[in-house]
Write a structure and sequence with these properties.
This protein is about 25% helix and about 20% strand. It is globular. The chain is of the alpha+beta class. The protein has four helices and ten strands, in the order E-E-E-E-H-E-H-E-H-E-E-E-H-E. The longest helix has 18 residues. The strands form two sheets. It has a seven-stranded mixed β-sheet, covered by helices on one side. It has a three-stranded antiparallel β-sheet with strand order 1-10-7, with helices on one face.
Length: about 180
């Protein structure tokens, strides 16, 4: 089922955590930040919305790095109920798409809860003070890969953040598969 996150809560402070990466070592979310900010992306391996845009996510992460914006992706899905999102499959997914950024496993889902992540993909763009400035879509693609000429919403918003510390006031929310939450025990 498709889910849509809430609008940007400008100024909300990012939450740090140390999570295991597909590279086999833990990363601090804040250590992934660049001098001008950070994008925290909640993604997974099996979601058709993520699959449709994963190559664009990788492209934008590389292009944002040149602007001093760091990038980190986090998978918080319940891998027991959704084996395609297991840690081993995350390693394969990152390698297959040549991730240039850490792909972290939020096994206990505490980071997704702290960020109030709703769907995959769900993008959080922070300025250099780790204040939320963007909570919107990558671009106009949905479950199908859109035209390559679509406006790069995330990239353009984070370019503004890199230059001014502020994100655009008008933002279009992301849309994707709901986070696959573990059953309460």
């Amino acid at each position: 089922m498709a889910s849509v996150p809430p609008i940007c809560d400008f100024g909300w402070k990012a939450v740090d955590a140390r999570l295991m990466s597909t590279e086999g070592r833990p990363f601090s979310i804040f250590d992934c930040a660049g001098p001008n900010g950070l994008v925290v992306a909640f993604i997974c391996n099996h979601c058709p919305y993520v699959k449709a845009v994963i190559d664009r996510i990788v492209r934008d992460a590389r292009d944002l790095e040149a602007l001093g914006i760091g990038f980190v992706a986090i998978n918080s899905n319940d891998a027991e109920a959704y084996p395609a999102d297991s840690f081993e499959r995350m390693k394969d997914f990152a390698a297959a798409h040549a991730f240039s950024f850490p792909y972290l496993h939020d096994e206990d889902q505490s980071v997704a809860r702290a960020y109030d992540a709703v769907c995959t993909p769900d993008f959080f763009g922070f300025n250099s003070d780790m204040e939320l400035q963007y909570r919107g879509r990558l671009d106009a693609s949905r479950k199908e890969t859109g035209d390559t000429a679509v406006r790069r919403d995330l990239f353009e918003a984070m370019r503004a953040v890199a230059e001014t510390g502020k994100g655009p006031r008008e933002q279009i929310p992301s849309m994707g598969c709901s986070i696959k939450w573990k059953e309460a025990s």
